[in-house]
């Protein structure tokens, strides 16, 4: 049988993400469906949760009327929004003819919409027993008999209509009406998700794999699948892979579909963006977050800003940002903490604001979402999907801004490929049931759908969950993209804003951000074997024998540490009595504050282990002590009128580190550290640089006199 003798029909009244997907899958197999009802108002009733859909069959009936006598022709009818093709028409027909049926319907495990009909159904030894009317194939004259068997209304239930025909034994025999119990062709997914597997086969060249769908219960590979009822999310998941949507050689094939190039768009037509920033909780590293927003590669004269800040803690951060940059944007609307606008309201307002500003693109970014890749906005727009989020993860964690699957009640669940996506083992564009933290929305969605259905407000649901649930109800696809790295998520859980310099305490919770802010820009150069600026024939700066010198912390770190100490303010007396020490006695006292007095000792020890120890191992080879131990960790303050210098002494350490926290000749004059045995002084200390030297025996040393200003140093006696 020629495939031209098979007419493929579907019903779709409007363009939706699901309809696009249906058409894409059809074109993958050169199937050209005839679309019925397009542009018309749906007349089939409330099919989501209620019976209905008779209108579909009416449309089909009308289309088949002139063909009713064509006894050699077949008709394949399927729904559109929740159906995809997985195989060629030839193969569908071949399998159909093997069944001996003249009409073949897909089967499902539920007797719907009239459960009382269950006992009227013939028993089946294997497979699904009940009729589903979402997909069927048959000879036109027989299908015509089915459609004309009885009168029906637009809002009558199409599945009930077909079921009654099937349960009429005489009619069933007459037209050889059968069900595809074992999914030779049709796979209805509702209630059978656990029977479905995505399998992969080596492709012809053996260089990669292609995906296909297998029913492991019936041991078949169905050719048309239907995400009926709640199984639409299963279909969304499967359709990330099939039909040949993703494979390991070409990667994401669907990513190239509909893609646009902003480079080729004339400047006046560049999409207008509403960039909405949300600070709904106290969040570490908001300054960097805002800075990255500003670094986005996108014409600022096409961006309107909307800022919702609920936190007093962040008022200065936002003000600094707007004072510096607001003038570059088309407009800025700010909602401040005093407005007491709840998150739900603010997010709803931002969508309205987008429409008011005639935006083409809505881009929401929450304060935990660091957009590290400055091309993110541009790339997301070019991806040209209704809703798409950049994949963001907490570095090194499985925590991300999307869910791979849903539980029955709409909560978080993991998909089989969740970890592969989070770790970007697989890269692509993934249709998922939940996204948050950062995403773009094409404003055509806001304009074409009932705005009251697209919002963030639902009783007992947080804003993101309400929003995604609304989009799911509208069958709007939400994609998360990890085609490239876009950024990362901040962990805001343990931020203590009662601290001076709260972010200094974030070395455990947000180590990557901590490092970027507080570690010296040239720190990694310390480990570069090709580093040119050598000194004293050593690979490392050695200002005095066995005293090494490294850049380690940023000026920001130094200023923050000084700030922490001065805010605390309880400098020691500089006398021999020191009740902070076990013996209560200090032979060589300094004016200092210990790290444990400001609750920062665990953080300091982490810093020693992570950043100081590798340097120690480079210069004092063979000495290995991991983690380093240190009981004495403190900041020293020298002042001409307080304690200007420190008399010669040994430290109770294997090695000592001494970090200069401020600038000689700017913040103070004089000072430095003199190693007496070598008559060698390090006076031109550099802010953020660390001196590391042995503590005892050879390195008897003194602190030189500060003649003006205040000198701050950070000291640790490592491995006492
Ligand atoms: O002033 C200096 O750089 C030396 C400080 C010192 O040796 C110490 O605090 O033990
Ligand atoms: Fe010392």
Describe this structure in words.
- The chain has 720 residues and is α+β, with helices and mostly antiparallel strands.
- It has three domains: 3-184, Spore Coat Polysaccharide Biosynthesis Protein SpsA, Chain A, CATH 3.90.550; 258-489, Spore Coat Polysaccharide Biosynthesis Protein SpsA, Chain A (Alpha-Beta Complex), CATH 3.90.550; 502-718, q2cbj1_9rhob like domain (Jelly Rolls, Sandwich), CATH 2.60.120.620.
- It is built from 17 helices and 41 strands.
- The strands form eleven sheets. The protein has an eight-stranded mixed sheet, with helices on both faces. It has a seven-stranded antiparallel sheet with strand order 29-30-38-34-41-32-31, with helices on one face. A six-stranded mixed sheet has the order 2-1-3-6-5-7, with helices on both faces.
- A hairpin with a 5-residue loop joins strand 22 (405-406) and strand 23 (412-413).
- Helix 8 (286-294) runs parallel beside helix 9.
- The longest helix is centred in the last third of the chain and has 19 residues, at 601-619.
- It is elongated and about 110 Å long.
- It starts with 5 loop residues before the first strand and ends with a strand.
- 41% of the residues are buried.
- The model has no long low-confidence stretch (mean pLDDT 94).
- Bound molecules: 2-oxoglutaric acid and fe (ii) ion.
- Fe (ii) ion (FE2) binds at residues 649, 651, 656, 701.
TL;DR?
With about 725 residues, the protein is an alpha+beta fold.
Topology (SSEs and partners):
Elements: E1 6-11, H1 17-28, E2 34-36, H2 54-64, E3 74-78, E4 83-85, H3 89-99, E5 103-108, E6 130-139, H4 140-147, H5 158-167, H6 169-174, E7 177-180, E8 186-188, E9 196-202, E10 209-215, E11 224-226, H7 232-238, E12 246-247, E13 251-252, E14 273-279, H8 286-294, E15 303-309, H9 315-325, E16 331-335, H10 343-356, E17 361-366, E18 369-371, H11 376-383, E19 387-390, E20 392-393, E21 402-403, E22 405-406, E23 412-413, H12 418-422, E24 429-432, E25 434-435, E26 438-442, H13 443-448, H14 463-473, E27 478-481, E28 487-489, H15 511-518, E29 541-544, E30 547-551, H16 555-568, E31 592-594, H17 601-619, E32 630-638, E33 646-649, E34 655-660, E35 668-670, E36 673-675, E37 680-682, E38 689-694, E39 701-703, E40 706-709, E41 711-718
Parallel strand pairs: 1-2, 1-3, 5-7, 8-11, 14-15, 14-17, 15-16, 19-27, 20-28
Antiparallel strand pairs: 3-6, 4-11, 5-6, 9-10, 12-13, 17-26, 18-28, 19-26, 21-25, 22-23, 24-27, 29-30, 30-38, 31-32, 32-41, 33-39, 34-38, 34-41, 35-40, 36-37, 36-39
Helix pairs in contact: 8-9
Bound molecules: 2-oxoglutaric acid (AKG) and fe (ii) ion.
């Amino acid at each position: 049988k020629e495939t031209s003798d098979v007419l493929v029909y579907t019903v779709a009244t409007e363009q939706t993400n699901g309809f696009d997907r249906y058409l894409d899958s059809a074109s993958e197999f050169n199937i050209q469906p005839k679309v019925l009802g397009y542009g018309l108002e749906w007349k089939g009733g409330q099919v989501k949760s209620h019976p209905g859909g008779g209108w579909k069959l009416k449309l089909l009936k009308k289309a088949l009327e002139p063909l009713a006598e064509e006894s050699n022709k077949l008709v394949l009818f399927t729904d559109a929004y929740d159906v995809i093709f997985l195989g060629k028409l030839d193969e569908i027909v071949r399998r159909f003819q093997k069944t001996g049926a003249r009409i073949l319907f897909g089967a499902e495990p539920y007797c719907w919409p009239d459960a009382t009909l269950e006992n009227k159904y013939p028993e089946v030894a294997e497979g699904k027993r009940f009729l589903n009317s979402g997909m069927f194939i048959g000879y036109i004259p027989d299908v015509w008999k089915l459609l004309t068997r009885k009168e029906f209304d637009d809002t009558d239930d199409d599945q009930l209509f077909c079921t009654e025909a099937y349960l009429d034994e005489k009619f069933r025999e007459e037209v050889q009406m059968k069900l595809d119990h074992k999914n030779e062709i049709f796979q209805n997914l509702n209630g059978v998700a656990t029977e479905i597997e995505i399998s992969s086969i080596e492709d012809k060249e053996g260089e990669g794999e292609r995906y296909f769908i297998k029913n492991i219960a019936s041991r078949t590979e169905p050719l048309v699948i239907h995400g009926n009822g709640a199984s639409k999310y299963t279909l969304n998941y499967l359709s990330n892979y099939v039909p040949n949507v993703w494979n390991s050689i070409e990667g994401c094939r669907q990513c190239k579909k509909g893609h646009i190039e902003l480079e080729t768009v004339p400047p006046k037509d560049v999409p207008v963006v509403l960039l909405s920033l949300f600070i709904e909780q106290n969040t570490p590293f908001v300054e960097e977050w805002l800075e990255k927003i500003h670094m986005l590669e996108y014409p600022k004269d096409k961006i309107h800003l909307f800022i919702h800040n609920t936190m007093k803690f962040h008022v200065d951060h936002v003000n600094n940002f707007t004072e510096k940059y607001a003038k570059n944007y088309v407009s800025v609307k700010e909602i401040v903490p005093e407005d007491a606008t709840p998150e739900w309201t603010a997010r709803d307002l931002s969508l309205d604001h987008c429409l008011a500003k005639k935006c083409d693109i809505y881009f929401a970014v929450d304060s935990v979402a660091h957009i590290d890749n400055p091309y993110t906005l541009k790339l997301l727009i070019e991806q040209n999907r209704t809703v798409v989020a950049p994949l963001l993860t907490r570095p090194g964690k499985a925590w991300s801004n999307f869910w791979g699957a849903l539980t029955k009640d709409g909560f978080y669940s993991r998909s089989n490929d969740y970890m592969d996506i989070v770790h970007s083992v697989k890269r692509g564009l993934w249709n998922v049931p939940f996204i948050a933290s950062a995403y773009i929305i094409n404003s055509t969605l806001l304009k074409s759908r009932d705005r009251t259905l697209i919002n963030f407000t639902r009783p007992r649901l947080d804003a993101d969950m309400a929003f995604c649930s609304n989009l799911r109800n509208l069958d709007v696809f939400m994609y998360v993209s990890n085609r490239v790295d876009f950024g990362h998520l901040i962990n805001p859980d343990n931020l203590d804003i009662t601290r001076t310099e709260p972010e200094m305490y974030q070395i455990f919770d947000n180590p990557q951000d901590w490092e970027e802010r507080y570690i010296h820009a040239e720190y990694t150069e310390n480990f570069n074997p090709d580093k040119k600026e050598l000194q004293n024939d050593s690979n490392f700066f050695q200002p005095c024998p066995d005293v090494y010198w490294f850049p380690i912390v940023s000026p920001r770190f130094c200023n923050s540490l000084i700030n922490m100490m001065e805010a605390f303010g309880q400098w020691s007396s500089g006398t021999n009595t020191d009740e902070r020490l076990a013996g209560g006695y200090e032979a060589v006292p300094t004016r200092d504050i210990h790290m444990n007095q400001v609750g920062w000792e665990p953080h300091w020890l982490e810093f020693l282990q992570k950043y100081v120890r590798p340097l120690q191992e480079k210069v004092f080879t063979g000495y290995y002590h991991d983690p380093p131990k240190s009981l004495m960790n403190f900041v020293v303050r020298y002042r001409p009128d307080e304690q200007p210098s420190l008399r010669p002494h040994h430290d109770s350490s294997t090695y000592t580190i001494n970090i200069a926290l401020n600038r000689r000749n700017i913040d103070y004059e004089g000072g430095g550290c003199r190693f007496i045995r070598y008559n060698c002084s390090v006076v031109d200390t550099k802010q953020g640089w660390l001196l590391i030297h042995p503590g005892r025996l050879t390195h008897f040393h003194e602190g030189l006199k500060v003649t003006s200003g205040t000198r701050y140093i950070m000291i640790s006696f490592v491995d006492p």
